[in-house]
From TrEMBL:
Record has Isomerase as a keyword: no
Stated name of the protein: FAD-binding domain-containing protein
InterPro entries: FAD-bd, FAD-dep_Monooxygenase_BioMet, FAD/NAD-bd_sf
FAD-binding domain: residues covered: 10-344
Family note: Belongs to the paxM FAD-dependent monooxygenase family.
C-alpha cells in the first residue's frame, strides 16, 4: 500500500559512520518510523584518533539530543597556538574563550569514539532505527520510482530490498556514487592530494613525567606546528587522558600503489625521518609512539561531482564532498547533511517519487555551495601552511604576526573571520527558511513508473 504521510516512508541509510548515524538519528527525531541502516562492519567498534567538534556541528548534535553525553569527555578549547615546527617559536596565538557567547556553543575536541558512541547511543534509544551489520551494498539495481538495492551479508546469500529513499553515507570509496554516476554516463575522478597523515594517540602516563609534555596534555589549547610541506596539529581528548596528534606530510608510501589502499602500517623510523627537522619537543612526543603502532593514512579527495542525487537516491558526507582535514569540518559537514536531508524530506507535500526526488535536489542546492567553499578553503589552508622558504612564506608569517590587528589568520581554521562565517551557520534553520522557495523553483523531475 502506498504511504501518504512522509513519516511512513521507508528510509534506508548505507554506512554507519558519523554521517550515517547522524542521518538515521535526524530522521528519527523528525518522526520517521521506518529507518534501516546497513553497515559492512560487524559492529560499531569505533577506532580512530581525535576529532574537532566546532560550534556548527555541536548545534546539530544538541538538537539530536546526544551532545550532553559527548560533552562529558570533551575538551573545551580556549585558544590555539600556531608555531614554527623547527623552533617551536610561536607565530600566532588566537584566543577563543568566548565561543559560547558568540555562537551559542563551544568549540571542543574529543575522541572519535566518543562522538560516534554518542550518536550510536542516540540511535539505540530510537526503536524506529534498525541496524544491519556485516551487510555490504553490492549494487543499486534501480533509482526510481522506488530504489532497489542488492545487499550481501557476510555469512549468507545476497538479497534485494526496496525502499522509498536511499541515502548513501558510504564514504570516499562509495559504491553508490560509482554506480550512480556510471548510470548517468559520467565517472568519479579521484584527485591526488599528494598528502598522507599519521594519527597518533599518546597516553597521559607516558607524558606526565616530562614537565613540557605534561603542560601540553593539561592545557585547553590546540597547537599546530608547521613546516615546509608538513605540519602537526595536536590537542588533548578524553578528559585530558590522551594527547592526539594528527599530521600531514608528502605522500611517499601510497603514491606508487595502483590499488585503492587508504591505510598502511607505518615505520616509526620513517615517521621520525619525516619530522627530523622539527623541534625537540615534537621529537620527544614522536619517540613515545610504540614500535609497531604507527599507521599512515592516504589523504584522498575527488573532483566536484556533477550531481549528488538521482531519482530517490542521494549521496552525503564523504561520498559527495570529501575534504582535507585542515579546516576540521569533514565530520561536521556529514552530520549537517543528515540533518538537512531529514528536514527536506519531512517537508514534502506528498510522497510521490517525483516529489521525493525534487526534495533531494533541494538538499543538494542547500548544501553544495557551502560544502564546496569549505573543501576549497581546507585545501587552500594546507597550501599556505606548507610553504617553504621564500617571499610567500615571509608574507604569510607577517600575516600571522599582524593577526590581532587585521582579524585574519593564514591558518584558516584559527582565523576569527572564517570561524564567524562557519560557526554561525545554522544548516537546519537555512533549510527551514529556504526549502519552500527552492522546492517551487525546481521543475518536478520525470520519474520512471
Amino acid at each position: 500500500m502506498a504511504v501518504t504521510d512522509p513519516r511512513d516512508l521507508h528510509i534506508v541509510v548505507i554506512g554507519a559512520g558519523m554521517g550515517g548515524l547522524g542521518t538515521a538519528l535526524a530522521f528519527a527525531k523528525k518522526g520517521f518510523k521506518n529507518i534501516d541502516v546497513y553497515e559492512r562492519a560487524s559492529n560499531l567498534g569505533f577506532v580512530g584518533a581525535g576529532i574537532q567538534m566546532p560550534p556548527n556541528v555541536i548545534r546539530v548534535l544538541d538538537r539530536l539530543g546526544c551532545w550532553e553525553e559527548i560533552e562529558r569527555e570533551a575538551t573545551d578549547v580556549k585558544d590555539t597556538s600556531i608555531r614554527q615546527g623547527s623552533t617551536n617559536t610561536e607565530l600566532a596565538h588566537v584566543q577563543m574563550p568566548d565561543m559560547r557567547e558568540k555562537y551559542g556553543y563551544p568549540h571542543c575536541t574529543g575522541h572519535r569514539a566518543s562522538l560516534a558512541g554518542g550518536l550510536e547511543n542516540g540511535c539505540k534509544k530510537e526503536k524506529v532505527i534498525k541496524f544491519h551489520f556485516s551487510t555490504e551494498l553490492i549494487k543499486v539495481d534501480s533509482y526510481e520510482p522506488r530504489p532497489k538495492i542488492t545487499l550481501q551479508p557476510r555469512d549468507g546469500e545476497a538479497y534485494q530490498i526496496e525502499c522509498d529513499v536511499l541515502l548513501a553515507s558510504d564514504g570516499i570509496k562509495s559504491v553508490t556514487r560509482t554506480q550512480m554516476l556510471g548510470t548517468l554516463g559520467v565517472s568519479s575522478q579521484e584527485e591526488d592530494t599528494g598528502q598522507a597523515a599519521y594519527r597518533i594517540m599518546l597516553k597521559r602516563e607516558d607524558m606526565e613525567n616530562d614537565p613540557e609534555l605534561k603542560a601540553l596534555i593539561d592545557c585547553d589549547t590546540v597547537i599546530r606546528w608547521i613546516g615546509e610541506k608538513r605540519h602537526i596539529i595536536a590537542y588533548p581528548v578524553s578528559n585530558h587522558t590522551i594527547y592526539n596528534l594528527s599530521t600531514a606530510q608528502p605522500d611517499s608510501n601510497f603514491a606508487a600503489t595502483t590499488n585503492a589502499t587508504y591505510t598502511t602500517k607505518g615505520s616509526k623510523s620513517a615517521m621520525l625521518k619525516v619530522y627530523e627537522t622539527f623541534c625537540p619537543l615534537v621529537q620527544r612526543m614522536l619517540n613515545l609512539v610504540p614500535d609497531g603502532e604507527v599507521c599512515e593514512w592516504k589523504l584522498r579527495v575527488h573532483k566536484a561531482l556533477p550531481t549528488w542525487t538521482h531519482g530517490c537516491v542521494s549521496l552525503l558526507g564523504d561520498a559527495c564532498h570529501p575534504t582535507l582535514p585542515h579546516l576540521s569540518q569533514g565530520a561536521a559537514m556529514a552530520i549537517e547533511d543528515g540533518a538537512v536531508l531529514a528536514e527536506c524530506i519531512s517537508r514534502i507535500p506528498n510522497t510521490q517519487p517525483a516529489t521525493i526526488a525534487k526534495a533531494l535536489k533541494v538538499f543538494e542546492l542547500l548544501r553544495r555551495d557551502h560544502t564546496s567553499m569549505l573543501v576549497d578553503m581546507a585545501s587552500y589552508s594546507g597550501r599556505v601552511l606548507h610553504l617553504g622558504e621564500g617571499k610567500a612564506k615571509e608574507e604569510r608569517d607577517k600575516e600571522f604576526a599582524n593577526h590581532a590587528k587585521n582579524g585574519s589568520v593564514p591558518d584558516k581554521w584559527a582565523s576569527p573571520d572564517v570561524q564567524k562565517m562557519i560557526y554561525s551557520y545554522d544548516c537546519v534553520k537555512e533549510a527551514q527558511t529556504k526549502f519552500d522557495e527552492l522546492f517551487k523553483s525546481l521543475e518536478t523531475p520525470a520519474v520512471a513508473a
